[in-house]
Design brief:
By secondary structure, this protein is an alpha/beta fold. The protein is built from 21 helices and 15 strands.
């Protein structure tokens, strides 16, 4: 009987040790899962591989635990995030492709990064995120790249048309320049409209302080019924109509080769990242600028958000990853390898370009410098008004490019569509 009892005690002790060991191992096996959208193959999009390498380098620092880090590419990460928020949860860390749901903030699901930024003197490291992503005094997501947009122009086409870059400094001059390009009648055309028209309308509205305020906040009835919105839409729609419906697209990427490789387009509405797409044959001919009126479209955009429902150990690693992504070390790689505008305002882009023999990198530095130093800076409508609104605007602009469309009538229809979206 004693032997049986002793055996049972021994088994109990062993079981307890196994359970304790299991708990200890579970601690070692804590993993911070990071979901991002850089799933593309290197042949399809080289910057995706560069970003994955950046993530893997951080993961290697924590390979021995007690908390490890795992970067997971996921094209549908935003759908996954929304599903988790609906259930009162949030992924450990995610690089958001869409705006953060207010519900995640109201439920306390995400970390307010502002105190961490302030206590670690990272204000300049996060750059424009510090103001644009401030929601009622809190910062819940930070984008490691600044979404920066302006215009690119073909100097050879403009010169042939008798136009200089200074002529594009006003919207009146821009319109006359496009007319001169059309008059060449040599197969070239003014610009790629549709999605590009959204950027032009944003810049047009930003000419006045009231217009700047309207494009920098959410869409409201005040915006829809404002003179600034009406004037901007109709002015750009008229340019689109004169430019021709054959040169419109819902996605600028569909026609970008016309500009970057074929040299058929005088002006391209695109981000600074277009520098990496300029073909060798077009180097020296294609150059960056900003919008008439000294306007640039610069958005902090979406970005890294961290779950507030992790263990302290996991949260510590997640915050260290955030600091790593905005560090000069990584931000320089984002400029050189990803061909993007870094969020860190302390990075000397011109110095980096001078150290790089790639001529496309010099173009990128020029584009970033012009955007960063623009007199007027406003965010993208994708971030302030949302994708559904932008899609309605693109459709309206594309229809206005058709010669038979009545712009006034189409604008009145657009107002009804947008009013329904915000009701």
């Amino acid at each position: 009987m004693k032997k049986v009892l002793l055996s049972m005690v021994a088994l109990s002790l062993i079981g307890g040790m196994v359970f304790a060991a299991g708990k200890k191992d579970a601690g070692k096996d804590e993993v911070v899962e990071f979901y991002h959208g850089y799933f593309h193959s290197e042949s399809e999009w080289p910057p995706a591989k560069a970003m994955r390498d950046i993530y893997d380098e951080f993961a290697a620092r924590y390979a021995d635990g007690p908390v490890t880090f795992k970067a997971i590419p996921l094209e549908t990460r935003d759908d996954m995030v929304n599903a988790q928020i609906a259930g009162g949860n949030f992924p450990d860390v995610v690089d958001l492709g869409r705006p953060l749901s207010p519900s995640a903030i109201s439920q306390g699901l995400v970390v307010d990064l502002k105190s961490y930024i302030d206590s670690n003197n990272l204000q300049k490291a996060v750059g424009i995120n510090y103001t644009q992503n401030n929601i009622n005094g809190g910062i819940y997501n930070v984008h490691d790249q600044v979404e920066s947009r302006g215009i690119w122009y073909n100097e050879a086409i403009l010169k042939k048309a008798g136009v200089s870059i200074s002529d594009l400094s006003t919207w009146e001059g821009f319109a006359k320049a496009m007319e001169a390009v059309r008059a060449l009648n040599d197969g070239s055309y003014g610009y790629i409209a549709g999605q590009g028209s959204i950027m032009m309308m944003t810049a047009y509205m930003a000419q006045t302080p009231k217009g700047q305020a309207l494009v920098s906040a959410g869409l409201t009835a005040e915006v829809i019924n404002s003179k600034e919105f009406e004037d901007a839409f109709k002015a750009i729609a008229a340019l689109d109509k004169a430019n021709g419906s054959a040169h419109t697209t819902v996605d600028t990427g569909n026609l970008m080769a016309d500009f970057n490789a074929a040299g058929k387009v005088a002006v391209l509405n695109n981000g600074v990242w277009n520098a990496g797409s300029v073909s060798k044959e077009m180097l020296g001919t294609l150059k960056p600028s900003i919008y008439p009126g000294n306007v640039a479209i610069v958005s902090a955009g979406n970005g890294l958000a961290i779950s507030n429902k992790m263990s302290d150990a996991k949260k510590k690693v997640a915050l260290e990853f955030f600091a790593y992504m905005v560090s000069p070390e990584v931000q320089e790689k984002i400029f050189n390898l990803v061909q993007a505008n870094p969020c860190n305002a302390t990075v000397d882009l011109n110095k980096l370009a001078a150290q790089n023999t790639d001529p496309n990198t010099a173009l990128l530095a020029d584009a970033c410098s012009q955007v960063n130093n623009a007199k007027i800076v406003v965010p993208s409508l994708y971030n302030t008004w949302g994708g559904d609104v932008v899609n309605s605007l693109i459709n309206a602009f594309m229809e206005c490019a058709v010669s038979s469309t009545d712009i006034n009538q189409r604008f009145n229809q657009l107002k009804q569509e947008l009013s329904a979206l915000i009701s």
